[in-house]
Amino acid sequence: MNDTIFAPATPPGMGGIAIIRISGPQALAAITHCFVPKRGGTLVPRRLTYGTIQNEQGEWIDEAMVAFLPAPHTYTCEDVAEIQCHGNPSLVNAILFMLSQLPLGLRPAQPGEFTRRAFENGRLDLSEAEAVMDIIGAQGTASARASLAQLRGGISAQIRPWIEQLTQAVAAIEAGIDFPEDDWEEEANEQGFTQIQSVYSGIDRLLQTYRGGRIVRNGLRCAIVGKPNVGKSSLFNAAAGFERALVSQEAGTTRDVVEECISIDGIAIRLFDTAGLRLQAQGLEQRGMELGKQQIEMADVALLVLDASAPLDADDRLAMEQLGEVPCLIALNKGDLPPVLSREDAYAFYPQALGVYSCCAAEGQGVVELFRAALKAVGAEESQQTVLTNARHAEALTRAKRLLFSALEARQAGVPPDVAAMDAREALQALGEITGQTLSQEVIHTIFSTFCVGK
Ligand code: GDP
């Protein structure tokens, strides 16, 4: 049986109330020891009770609300007690110290230990436990919603049937190896490979959601690129909603990379306003351009800003040449002035552009639409279907996909079926790593150790 652990569930010094959580067989005994309900009240399970917290010597530490939640319908599936006390860190520490001194063998929880117990007691699988941490660290509401969907079993709900199907497929193929002459075994074999094909396609579809899912989770890195004076800083400021970057009529005023985080449709966007690119740049401006180039390389998407009221020139070309392989949208700015450049001119200038969007950065017109289009272009949209957001899951799925592909290839090449069966078995192993079924204790320990204390 587990020992009893405790930890603050709220971060230190953050608010009026702090919550201390206790989980394990001694949770009720611990509360009975240190908590005295007011006015002769009694502790009723799953109800908050008001009273005082005292130490072993009967000295008052704080007034508090306490709840006792009996196993098994709790977060950890164990007996849980929660103390809501005042958020003063010294009071919280005094209560934690008092708990450690009780003659009940309580100890401070390690990072992620409550969630680990939920995992070990079968309440959550590993991908769901990871979703708990993702919700806590989510950037933006869309990211939090994607994590919540995963906590509700989104990824597991897809992977569990695949594990079942593959297990059946391996059994069918292996039966065929033992009795190769039987007709019905050939049929089972055939069925086995059909199942492998179906799991392969499912994994492929889920993996395709990863690029967008990763952005929903971590935010979109977006570089604003263009020659001086096209309105990059104005676009940046319009997005940020305030004057963050310096706007000037003098060319070459943005010399460092300015960064801002905005949120569009609940998805975080990290904007980088890069230094204007121009041929005669030198000194500090030149260094700014180099930094900008690094930002472009690291970006998920770039916005190439062109001035719609002036003809294209060599500096526009220089800016365009910095884009490399980064997916890019064109922002045709200064849409309020008499037009010189058309959308067709912009496309002809940079045919790889994923779209051309007119805007007027000075007035903030068309700016939100531009960022929405950028999110859409890289597949970062909130969607009803389950999206893959976690790098560990993506790695395991990529491995499973590769193994299933090689199983299908072996079948095509007429290689004996035991080779394919072995690949399918390894793919099963990879899928089991996502739910935690086939991971070693050490790896599971490493994953939970990255979680925060008190969760
Ligand atoms: P950057 O050098 O590319 O960052 O350009 P800035 O944002 O500093 O803008 C250069 C000049 O263009 C400033 O005088 C801005 O007021 C002006 N500007 C920017 N956007 C617009 C726009 O949409 N319409 C008009 N008419 N002027 C703009």
Note the main attributes of this structure:
binds guanosine-5'-diphosphate, 13 strands, flat, seven-stranded mixed beta sheet, about 15% strand, about 450 residues, alpha/beta, 16 helices, six-stranded mixed beta sheet
What does this structure look like?
There is one protein chain. 47% of the residues lie in helices and 16% in strands. With 455 residues, the chain is α/β, with parallel strands linked by helices. A 7-stranded mixed β-sheet has the order 3-4-5-6-2-1-7. Helix 7 (183-208) packs antiparallel against helix 14.
SS summary, helix count: 16
Major sheet description:
7 strands, mixed
* Ligands (ions, cofactors included): guanosine-5'-diphosphate
Helix content: 40-55%
The coarse overall form would be flat
Work out the number of β strands: 13
How far do the termini sit from each other?
Answer: 20 Å
Percent range for β-strand residues? 15-25%
Average residue-wise pLDDT: 87
Q: Taking Cα atoms only, what radius of gyration do you get, to the nearest Å? A: 29 Å
Write the H/E string, N to C.
EEHEEEEHEHHHHHHEHEEHEHEHEHHHH
Helix-strand makeup class: alpha/beta
Arrangement of strands in the largest sheet: 3-4-5-6-2-1-7
Low confidence ranges: 243-248
